Amino acid sequence: MTLAEAIYQRSLSLPDAAAQEALDFIEFLGQRYGTAAGITAPTDAWFQAEVQRAIDDSRAPIQNDQVSQHFAARRDALRTSMHK
Length: 84
Known about the structure:
- By secondary structure, the chain is mostly helical.
- It has a domain at about 1-55.
- It has four helices and no strands.
- The chain has helices at about 5-10, 15-30, 40-55, 65-80.
- The termini are far apart.
């Protein structure tokens, strides 16, 4: 019996929730080790395109303190609107 067959046989005795958890973990391992079919290549291509787009962006950079202040104000406004 191969290792894959042993894993499959053991999975047959699991309740559905545990089998789903095992499948999720196997998919996680596939992503971690770069063997997830059809996942890593498109993600890598997307990430490379996004990085290149940021490098090519000719707009002036925004300073960290400006971004922090902007989103702090947005969070405060949201909290205020939620407590009305």
